[in-house]
Amino acid sequence: MKTYYVGMDVHKATIVIAVLDANGRVVSQSIIETSTQAVRDFCQSLRGEIHVTFEEGNHAAWLYDVVEPLVKHLVVCNPKHNHLLKQGSKNDRIDARKLADLLRLKALKPVYHGEHGTRTLKELVRCYECVVKDLSRVQNRLKALYNSQAIRNRGRELYHLSQRESWIQKQENAGRRLRAELLFRQMDELKVLKRAARKAMIAESRRHEAQNILSQVPELGMVRVAQIIATVDSPFRFRTKRPFWAYLGLAVETRSSADHEVTNGRVSRRKLKIETRGLNEDYNRRLKSVFKSAATHACSCGVYKEYYNKLVARGMRPEMARLSVARKLAAAVLAVWKKRESFDEGMIMSRAA
C-alpha cells in the first residue's frame, strides 16, 4: 500500500494541497475550494495510507473534524515552530510542499485538538470571554471620556445606574453628552449579555464530571473551572506537572553551553551556574490568565497565604512567590483531576512541592 504525505495551506476561499510519496517526491499539487465536500472528495480520491497536516488557525477545528475520519494520521501543527517555511521563496504551493515534507520527516509539533465532548463548552467560554472584553472596552472608553475633561471619577462609581443622569449632565458639550449616554446604554446591554453568557457557560460546565472535582480546589470559582475544562479537555494529556506548567506559561527556561569537560581522560559535567531566561513564551494565554489571577487572590487569603508569606519572609521577591503559588495551584488541579479525589490541603501541598 502506498503512503502519501499531504500538506494543506488553508485560506478563506481555497486550500492549496501538495502530495508527496514516502521518498519525498511530489505526486501531485492541486487547489480546491474551502468547503466540506471539496475536502472530502479530495481525501477519498487518494488510494493508500494518507498522512495529512495543516497549520493551526481559524479553520483548524472545522477542518480537523472533516479530515480526521478519512485519513490514517492527522497533525494540526504549530505555525510558530515551522521555521522552514520562512526560508527561501514563499508562496502557497511552496508552503504546502514544505508542510508535507516536514510531516514526512516527523518534524512538526502538533497542536492538541481534543475530544468532541467539550466543543459546546469551548464555544460558550469563547462567547463569555468576548462579551467580557467588549464590556471592559466600553467601560474604559467611558473613563477616558470623563478623564479627558478632568472630571474626577473613582472607578466603579461611574457605572452605578442610580447616578447615571448626574454623570451625563457633567458633560457640558452636547456631542460629548450624547456620546456618554450611548456608551452607558451599550454598557447596560453588554451587562445583560454577560449574565446570559455566564449562566449558559456554567450550566454547560456542570454537565462535566470534572466540574465537581475542580470546584473543590480553593481559588477556582465556577468561571475559572469552566475555562480550565474547556481548554485542557483531559488531564491525561500531561504526564506530570512540569509539562502542564509549560502549557500554562509557568515553566522557567534555562540556557547553558559547553556543559562538559575532559579531566584526566574522563568526561565530566562542568559545575557552571545555569542561566535563566524567564518563563517560556509558547503557552496558552487563557489558562495563564486564569492561574495568575487565582494565585494573586490566593496570596492574600485562603490556604496558600501562609505558604506565600513564608516565601517572602525567606527573601524571595513577591512576583516569584506568586509564581510559586500559581505552580502549586496548577499542580493541585492536575493531581485532583487525575486521581478523581477530594482536595486535601496538606496532601496536595506536599505533592505539589
Protein architecture, described:
The protein has 353 residues and is an alpha/beta fold. It has 3 domains: 3-104, ATPase, nucleotide binding domain (Nucleotidyltransferase, domain 5), CATH 3.30.420; 119-205; 209-352, no CATH class. It has 13 helices and 9 strands. The longest helix is centred in the middle third of the chain and has 32 residues, at 174-205. The mean pLDDT is 90.
The outline comes out as globular
- How does the major sheet shape up? 5 strands, mixed
Spatial strand arrangement across the major sheet: 3-2-1-4-5
Strand proportion, as a percent range, falls in 5-15%
Average pLDDT, all residues: 90
Query: What is the string of helix and strand elements?
Result: EEEHEHEHHHHHHHEEEEHHHH
- Tally of helical segments: 13
What are the segments in which pLDDT stays under 50 over at least 5 consecutive residues?
Answer: none
Structural class: alpha/beta
Helix % is: 40-55%
User: How far apart are the termini?
Assistant: 51 Å
Rg, Å, rounded: 26 Å
Number of strands: 9
What is the total number of structural domains?
A: 3
List the main descriptive attributes of the protein structure presented here.
353 residues; alpha/beta; Nucleotidyltransferase, domain 5; 5-stranded mixed β-sheet; two-stranded antiparallel sheet; 9 strands
List the helices and strands and how they pair.
Layout: E1 3-10, E2 14-20, E3 26-33, H1 36-45, E4 49-55, H2 60-67, E5 73-77, H3 92-104, H4 119-147, H5 164-169, H6 174-205, H7 209-214, H8 222-232, H9 241-248, E6 252-255, E7 260-263, E8 266-269, E9 275-279, H10 285-298, H11 305-313, H12 318-339, H13 345-352
Parallel strand pairs: 1-4, 4-5
Antiparallel strand pairs: 1-2, 2-3, 6-9, 7-8
Helix pairs in contact: 4-6, 4-8, 6-8, 10-12, 11-12, 12-13
